[in-house]
Amino acid sequence: MAQAISSKEVVILEEGSVTLPLGFKAGGIHCGIKRKKLDLGYIVSDVPAIAAGVYTTNIFQAAPLLVTQESIAKENKIQAILVNSGNANACTGEQGLTDAFEMQKEFASELGIQSHLVGVTSTGVIGELLPMEKIKTGIKQILMNEYENEENFKKSILTTDTCMKQIAVQVKIDGKTVTIGGTAKGSGMIHPNMATMLGFVTTDANVAHDDLLYALKDVTNQTFNMITVDGDTSTNDMVLVMANGLVANNQLTKEHPDWELFVDGLKIVCESLAKKIARDGEGATKLIEVQVNGAYSQNEARAVGKSIISSNLVKTAIYGTDPNWGRIVTAAGYSGVPIEPSLLDVSLGQYKVFEKGLPCPIVEEQVKEYLQQENIKILVELNQGDYNATAWGCDLTYDYVKINASYRT
Amino acid sequence: MAQAISSKEVVILEEGSVTLPLGFKAGGIHCGIKRKKLDLGYIVSDVPAIAAGVYTTNIFQAAPLLVTQESIAKENKIQAILVNSGNANACTGEQGLTDAFEMQKEFASELGIQSHLVGVTSTGVIGELLPMEKIKTGIKQILMNEYENEENFKKSILTTDTCMKQIAVQVKIDGKTVTIGGTAKGSGMIHPNMATMLGFVTTDANVAHDDLLYALKDVTNQTFNMITVDGDTSTNDMVLVMANGLVANNQLTKEHPDWELFVDGLKIVCESLAKKIARDGEGATKLIEVQVNGAYSQNEARAVGKSIISSNLVKTAIYGTDPNWGRIVTAAGYSGVPIEPSLLDVSLGQYKVFEKGLPCPIVEEQVKEYLQQENIKILVELNQGDYNATAWGCDLTYDYVKINASYRT
Fold this sequence. Notes:
By secondary structure, chain A is an alpha+beta fold. Chain A has helices at about 65-75, 95-110, 130-140, 150-155, 210-220, 260-280, 300-310, 310-320, 325-335, 365-370, 400-405; strands at about 5, 10-15, 25-30, 40-55, 75-85, 120-125, 165-175, 175-185, 200-205, 240-245, 285-295, 345-350, 350-355, 360, 375-380, 385-395.
């Protein structure tokens, strides 16, 4: 494990991921959905784990999401997750549902566990039936030792992503070390809600189901639901958390003295993955962070942040290192939030460009130089109330157009 | 005037514009806001005209919009419009307001009319003060005969537009020929509401103010508010209609027997301009029309249409001539409208690609060939209710990114 950036209470392990918590293994293979790359992966826990999920709000929820939700509902647990990339199994009707159930059943049979203990999910092209023979052949081989490898899993879930994404944290619960690890994939059709991506989080903590679900929803609203790449909310997004309890701490609930610490750890994992997805947005060259302060409510702060981070004009200006703050103010102005123009301040990094509703004198070249960095911070101060929010996204580039003008064919 | 494409009751004059109705003249000059192109233009009526306007919903409404709204409110009339391009006079505070009033006063003085009879509007870069000396010098020269020219006006309002936009229609009201002419500019920050553009419509009809305003709002909701280029709602959008009554028909109100015909004519003008703006969106190579049928309400039909036409993924797929209907279905699915997946049909041109919630067998090459055309029609049938809507937009291309990564600097 690489170096640990530790704060007092949360140890961050940049290289850690889903198999760092006790009792989890993961792997992946190439089964033939994609031409060459890994396209089928799994996470398995030694014992059934308390499970919580959040799912896309798109009306055309893909078949595997329906299967996974229904399965978790049976006893709030799963023991394994099977993921394929290259084909979303979305808009595939009854046959798609049959296929998702079959994926689940076949993998459960290999593991020797009940079907409803397997969560299934898919990502890739919409509207094509899964190549079930290839997937079934893959499922028969995937548990072989040679494919058991966390890196294989992290690779097998990717589509147009350019890199794997992972993070783990450790916190002390009842004096015992609890680990939370995660991985995720982006990188197009990325827009709240929900996360418009796949995220997998594992932990060896013992957590009550309802509280875990509550924490996941709350954290998702602050992290995965605050990123956008292109404003398109996919049919397949989900984040799953598995908590297998192998650390044997006293069960975590909202009443547990270390509850906040556990949620902080979960939030660090989800925020880190969310930012990595935004940075790795299709064609992106920069990560953009929009911090909105001083709103009348949490929802208003989020709405302003999302409006700015979703603006194609803001995104292209950042790509072109153009300190065109007028586009930021414009996007705030159409967010639907009752902003008071004469109170608004905007900064790009350390440079204040707009103050109390008026442009500030700036040295254009200085700000342009700032915008050449890879991490851009936009600070918007509404100066109206006490609520803040952060949103993350990326610039809009030639490569975004290139990737999406020819992704499928 | 070029050839007239006449329907039975509405004669369409593709080359007609704002000076075709009786008693209007227009012109434009280069006053120095832009480097070379025309940047200051006017429309003047021989007599005060009943005026109606619709304005951006962006909270940061630019100074000239405030001035124009306030002025029209005085007696529901204006006699002239002064427009500059190259500078939006937006986010310019008290000084911006003072400058807009001064533009108005100076031009009124040249015309020898009261200030409140001049509407003013601006388009271009946000957050810079108007170069008032240049504008004032321009105003002193602009009424000279050599600059009086409808084409000059149509050019003077453009920013990144690649072409002028115009249309006129003629209808018989009380047996007299009434002409309605219009011009508009796009072509970035184009998204409802309102039109995110400038539109100017003139007519020699005699129309009651309240009814004219009602008709303009209704027509705008079906036309200018149904287009998008990039989802960004500008600070400066407005559409102004001037009706100078020189045809001397009996005053048009909702009770007039020819009222519907007049509104039809107005709608044809606005729809034509709206489509031209969409087609001339920044970097666009294609006009996309999304027809949504069978919704439970007008608003739901519009919401589905806007969601699809705004999707970067749909726009890039069309650019790449990729029959990726999954992105269309996805965008419908996150529109917020309670669609029933198993009832949904989608066609690209004459090719049905999705029926009752399932993919249709298609000959990929045929659909790809269709998508190579310049005008693409997407038909979405919800099969739920009786309401329909149409939305227009354009593809998302390398050139959009190029234009917007470096527009300002």
